[in-house]
């Protein structure tokens, strides 16, 4: 097999893994297995979050933060162990964000053609590439203290979150807007054609219903910035920022596979530099950097003189003008220490504020099955899979609702969507066990098990129709899914403003039965701000955040 | 500069100035166009009254499919209601994410059988749809209605944003509301409710089931629930009402959940008169039609008879 064929295999591999990643995110929806004989079980047929469990940085971060390698995270070793022997093949062959950066970097432009020389220069190893190692140490130190922030910039959760909560919803909104625009032209045939196209792509790409996520602008801008920077420096993110790249670089310290350069045949055409992805100095005259190389094989494939060759135990004549490759990571001990200390300091910074414990946001309702807040923040990688799978668009990425520490972790906003009483999909897709999978009876409860509770509902009597406006309603009671209903009614005589006595049924809440699902808040007809609302008190995951001395168990 | 060049150069600038100015003048204080149009229902689903047949029939049989067939045959059989090539929409109650035994949704076997009957009667297309309260994908799965309907060849529609059309209900309090298209764009409409307790309207049977044709902020309807129900019933005027009283939800309605609240009545009611049908079915809940607000109002609005015996009542046991 020639090197060009191997390079083509690498290209196919990039497309393949990107497609799998994207497809599994698309499949993170309600395409479920259902057997009428066992109606309690609604399961996703595919392990849609498995791609995230192959991420070594997620594995290491969650392991350090909560001391356990959850479920499928052992798969990360499939990436990590080969890296020890051959280097960062993941970055060049598999990483879907890396591939995206690769493709966007390689889109030809006027500027690139004109500036061949500056591109050669920019593809030489630069000092800024060390930043990713310091970022890695910073976040890993924070994880060790129990605050897992790595998901913010870990490429796989980052991409999953960006696609799931930003790219796909905006495509949906755009497509629907275009259809509406064409239909509004008042020329039905054209509108029908556009609608036809929409109907065709809709089952492939779009959600069953349009979703709207809280605060996606920040996620979107962050993601687009990463992509745009590729137009300035080839794979800027991968070279300079990506902490997973840094981690894999560190693990390729003792790799036995590398680049050998033959000085005698080289004519210094610099083709290798022009096509280098990792900026690892593939040219003759500088030391090749093992820890930066993505193993994309471009340099060997484009070399017209066949002077470059990847091999096990690379052998080359080492001279002053053709130095041996460097395996050591280019970082200083002092700066590593500084990064670690910075990461450690993150913990007291977050936790000495009031948001975590003493003044937690009452509206911070976490998904059903979530572990306690401290464990939650040690597990959630902000991949957004729970938000994507939620059939009711109930789960959203937080902005500051759970403090700076919890940015982009899931929050349930009942006004947008309530927690579907029998649904357990978010726990099924969580790759790190921040949301544990619940069995049907753990979710809804039965005679021996209490249901999973995420909060408690309260009535805002000033806004409630039967309580303050002498008007019948009872929608909250109608929708309340527990049995018996947590919302009960009492008929009272109320005097309306004309002095006439009317019999009105007024709602009350039994906190012992309420699960906090938010169905009532969702259905309340008071449109802008519901007259019944959920706060997190009473949530199953917290022994402290409670109202009652003892809650009734069972139904 | 010669004359030719002068004309060439200035005419381009003049043209752009004219377009700019013209655009401004054209759009100045223009009435904003309202693209959204709305329909009023034009087709009528009702079949002519037939004096020789009973107007309402109830059949009790633990074989629910046989019960449906018996009561339908008693009021004239499927051929009376469906002509060859008709497009039929069936509106079961698929409001909640509940299993059939919990009696929150219409019995799936009855819906499947009704679809089969419609095709046997010559229907060209049978649609089964409802606007569920819970996630429709879950409701249609767990209620078993998706499976039973599709098995019998029906097209099951789970509503999305694009499936609504603004429609003038022309009611006393309901004006223009988004209505699910298959409830308007069809030839025949069959209402297939289940009998349930309801805290505000005391029961939710046939006419109340038409809440499920509306999108939008339908929770506001509860503020005048009787008139809302009657407005919808007057708007829909179904071809046929088939009431599932095989299981009746006595308490905790309309969603239920506990099997202790379910009464097994093994009955199916078929009628052309939606008021009479509701009035008879309410008796399963221990209620009387003349004590129920929306049923009384419906009779007053000349939608049907509370005294179901007056239109010919047949009971098959």
Q: Keywords, please?
A:
heterodimer; A: 555 residues; 3 domains; two-stranded antiparallel sheet; 10 strands; 8% strand; B: 317 residues; alpha/beta; ten-stranded mixed β-sheet; three-stranded mixed β-sheet; 21% strand
Structural overview:
The complex is a heterodimer of chains A (555) and B (317). Chain A is mostly helical and 555 residues long. Chain A folds into three domains: 3-24 and 43-151 and 234-312, no CATH class; 158-227; 373-535, no CATH class. Chain A is 42% helix and 8% strand. Chain A has helices at residues 3-26, 50-53, 56-66, 76-86, 89-94, 96-106, 110-114, 116-122, 131-144, 155-183, 188-205, 216-229, 236-241, 243-251, 271-275, 298-302, 333-351, 373-377, 385-389, 425-429, 440-444, 465-468, 475-479, 519-523, and strands spanning 33-34, 42-43, 257-261, 308-312, 395-397, 410-412, 456-459, 487-495, 501-509, 532-535. The longest helix of chain A has 29 residues, at 155-183. Chain A is elongated. The termini of chain A are far apart. Chain B has 317 residues and is of the alpha/beta class. Chain B has nine helices and 13 strands. In chain B, the strands form two sheets. In chain B, strands 2, 3, 4, 5, 8, 9, 10, 11, 12 and 13 form a ten-stranded mixed beta sheet that branches. In chain B, a hairpin with a 7-residue loop joins strand 6 (164-168) and strand 7. The termini of chain B are far apart. At the A-B interface, helix 10 and helix 23 of A face helix 5 of B.
Class of the largest domain in chain B, according to the CATH hierarchy?
Alpha Beta
Structural class of chain A: mainly alpha
Q: How many DSSP-defined strands of chain A?
A: 10
Q: pLDDT under 50 segments of chain A (min length 5)?
A: none
How would you summarize what this structure contains?
Chain A is mainly alpha-helical and 555 residues long.
